[in-house]
Amino acid sequence: MTMFQLIRSSFFQFNTLTQVRKVPFGKIVVYLLCLSFLFAIPMTFQVAEIFQSIRADGQEIAKKIPDFSIQNGQLKTKEQTKGFIYQTDSIIFTFDPDNQRSVEQVTQEDLGNLFNIGLLKNEAVLSLPQGEFTSAIFSTNPIILPYSSSLFTNLTGDSLRQGLAENQLPWFLYVLIFLIAVYPSFLTLVITLVIMSLAFSIFLRARSAQWRFLNTLKTLVVCSTIPTLFAAGMLFLNATFDATTFIFLATSFIFFNVIRQEKKEIV
Q: Is residue 182 domain-shared with residue 218, that is, in the same domain?
């Protein structure tokens, strides 16, 4: 079967899905990657919206940031400046040049869906909202970056204000967000379909049906086309939609209809 035939079968010709077992596994992997790209689109839009909100809030915070520079690995202000905490809709920003607050105190202010950013005397702190996306991408949270890092060599109050005042996000950031979003999307589909394949292949062999694990996995990947697209659409409408459970149930329904069709052909 060609890729076009696989797509057509997944939408309009369920009775031909019994032939998916004969398709080379490499083609199925490519098909699964294409589904992952589609499944990643809602997450990309959601993360892009978050970045837009952060950009707008960052411009608001920029007005509060005093003049400072990084000297000998420490944050120094030009004038005697008191630290402050400023909260917007998406960010809790802490500016502490006097070392009055610890990293633990800054990160303890995390209120769920807010980014917690701190410029302390000796390091910068970034605490991310807990979620599937951040857990998949970042192994540590909070992220602590000492000012001795080369990242902060040219950081000043003026350069930070100018950076936060940018009117729009760079185009390549959207591409990067999409590519990063593909990873958890692909992982979610792979884990779901592999678990289903193990369970269904054991069930079918117990009933004397000639369905090996790999054949079951191939068929399930193609059977998951409509459920994956529908789940992606629902995630646009409701970010809390349980896409994994829906894909599991809907793909199972289509798969067992394929099994029934095969039995009819044998009879």
A: yes
Q: How many domains are contained in the chain? A: 2
Q: Are residues 117 and 83 in the same domain?
A: yes
Handedness of CA 193, 196, 202, 208 (dihedral sign): negative
Report which of 80, 58, 64, 75 is spatially closest to residue 156, judged by C-alpha positions.
75
Q: Give the residue-averaged pLDDT of 83-87.
A: 86
* Cα 125 to Cα 159: distance, rounded to the nearest angstrom: 18
Q: What values do phi and psi take at 59, rounded to 5?
A: -65, -35
Q: How far apart are CA 107 and CA 112, in angstroms?
A: 11
Q: Is the Cβ–Cβ distance between 11 and 225 less than 8 Å?
A: yes
Q: How high is the pLDDT of residue 266?
A: 47
From CA 13, how far away is CA 34, in angstroms rounded? 20
For residue 251, pLDDT over 90 is answered with yes
Identify any residues that bridge with 248 across adjacent strands, giving them in sequence order: none
Dihedrals phi, psi of 49, to nearest 5 degrees: -65, -40
Distance CA 4, CA 30 (A): 13
Same domain, 184 and 151: no
Could you tell me if 148 and 185 lie in one domain? no
Q: For the chain, first and last CA: distance in Å?
A: 24
Domain of residue 73: give its range: 68-155
Residue that wins the pLDDT comparison between 52 and 185? 185
